[in-house]
Model the fold of this input.
Amino acid sequence: MSTLRILVPVKRVIDYAVKPRVNKAQTAVEIAGVKHSMNPFDELSVEESVRLREKHTNKTVEDILALSIGPPKAADTLRTAMAMGCDRSIHVEVPEKDDMLEPLQVAKILKEVVEKEKSNLVILGKQSIDDDSSQTGQMLAGLLGWGQACGASEVLLEGDSLKVTREVDGGTEVVKGKLPMIVTTDLRLNEPRYASLPNIMKAKKKKLEKMKLEDFQVRAENRLKTLKVTEPPPRQGGGKVSDVDGLISKLKELGAL
Done:
């Protein structure tokens, strides 16, 4: 069995418990003064990487590297990942602005990191809860020419292969692929651990490498432009009907029949 060098991309996003608000210019969601945390799907990725080490010992999992592409405060997200069990981290620092990097740009950066760090397994969230693109993992697999298993609800290491269970419309599907491989995580995969105070203190001593976009062969200009962001219209109140005939009449009145 070859040793695993795992790359875990993590993203700093508005906390899932916060209700987003559109900024006054209607160009994006308001981020100033809003609580941020690690993307929930990425928490699952970190947890699964650490569990693989706990199940198979350090001889199997040689290195767990967390990486985040974001503003200076994204370093806090990386510290959390290291407190949960990642060995070290890389912070690709970008300015905090309304328009974030697109999935293809992120995938190209990850490809360069994979090749530099000689990673043979990338575990990342199937999507981030801010843009909900759900594209980065698939694009990275395409750029690298690796096998992929998306939306994992169970991951089993069997020699030099991974057996991944994923939920589909009809139930579950099991796929198996040889390393190197890309796995994206779904919500039922595991229950992320809380970082204990001793591990938080230890994380401060772990290596956090700083990099810039200029260190990568990626164009910083986005190809898509957001023209306007608005709140969804308020939902209209419901109504009651006395019988089936009344329901049919109401549906006809609304143009639904």
Observations:
- The longest strand covers residues 147-158.
- The chain has a mean pLDDT of 89.
- The CA atoms of residues 101 and 228 lie 18 Å apart.
